Amino acid sequence: MLSGILVLDKPKNISSGNYVRKLKKYLSKEKVGHAGTLDPMATGILIACVGQMTRFSDYLANLPKSYEAEILLGQQTNTGDIEGKVIERTNFIPSKNELEKILNCFVGEIDQVPPIYSALKYKGKSLYKYARKGINLDMNSRKIVIHEINFISFEKNILKLEISCGRGTYIRVLAEDISKKAGSLGTLLNLRRTESAGFKVEDSLREESLCNDNFREKIIAPGDALNRLDDIQCRSEIIEKITKGQKVEMKLTSEDKFLRLFDKNKNFIGIVENCNGFIKPKRLLTID
Predict the structure, then answer these.
(1) Average pLDDT, stretch 148-158?
(2) How does strand 86-89 pair with strand 75-77?
(3) Which of 46, 40, 67, 7 is nearest to 191 (CA)?
């Protein structure tokens, strides 16, 4: 069975799910999924997981992501982006210096309230389904991590930023919160994911560039796909214990919680958990 990832460059006006499903025409029985959803209006890196890599998508999605975001100051929409209905406007537009000064307020671990127009679930139903029916829900804030925010430009009421963040961050909400902190209103105008799980957008490809002749050669193998995780290479007797579900005592220099496990021939076995002087299986490849 074919397993690995493809680093795609998703275009506008298509959902993440629909875009990766275009890959099915190159597959036989393999599953396909993705790590880290992009809204239909957003473009950029979308990691498509093929075959057994669908079982590892959470590990990819948990890794840092970077975006280029454009925020239109002076109005707010019901969805948080330019595709929504304008619900409020203001004539106050902060200066470039005022905007630059407040950006550091959003770096680090912060609280963020998820948008009602999102695929997050409430009582088994996506939030956007409640929103479309006009049902208001009191959403609790969640802890997110913003690693870095860099100012790029501010012209014609459009603030352009480069943002590096952790999983679960809604850039639409961050755009609104930055605008409010500056005493104004704002909505997300454009969003492009430029990096995800260590892969950069300049190394990505469009689904339209694939064909039956080149599809397999574009696949990145599971062990390489997870290369942001440290790795360990073990002899066969340890591999056997791990594949049987046993934990093994081992002193490691890495402080990472999850590690890639390889056998002596450098074959990827799966992910193990590093815990208190032991390693134990967390997610392993299955044998076809």
Answers:
(1) 98
(2) antiparallel
(3) 67
Residue 140's pLDDT is: 83
Query: Kindly report the CA angle at 122 between 121 and 123, in degrees rounded to 5?
Result: 115
To 5 degrees, how large is the angle CA 268–CA 197–CA 201? 120
Q: What share of the chain is helix, strand, coil (3-state, %, to 5)?
A: 25, 35, 40
Quick one: tokens of 235?
A: 């002899």
Q: What are phi and psi of 164, to 5 degrees?
A: -115, 130
Q: Note the CATH number of domain 231-284.
A: 2.30.130.10
Mean pLDDT of 26-30: 92
Q: Taking every pair of C-alpha atoms in the chain, what is the biggest distance, in angstroms?
A: 70
For the annotated catalytic residues, the residue numbers are 39
Q: Does domain 65-195 have CATH number 3.30.2350.10?
A: yes
Per-residue DSSP letter, 169: -
Residue ranges covered by each domain of the chain: 4-63+198-225, 65-195, 231-284
- Assess whether pLDDT exceeds 60 at residue 288: no
Which CATH architecture fits 4-63+198-225?
A: 2-Layer Sandwich (3.30)
pLDDT on residue 128: 72
List, for residues 83-141, the tens digit of each pLDDT value: 999 999 999 999 999 999 999 999 999 999 988 877 777 777 777 777 677 777 777 89
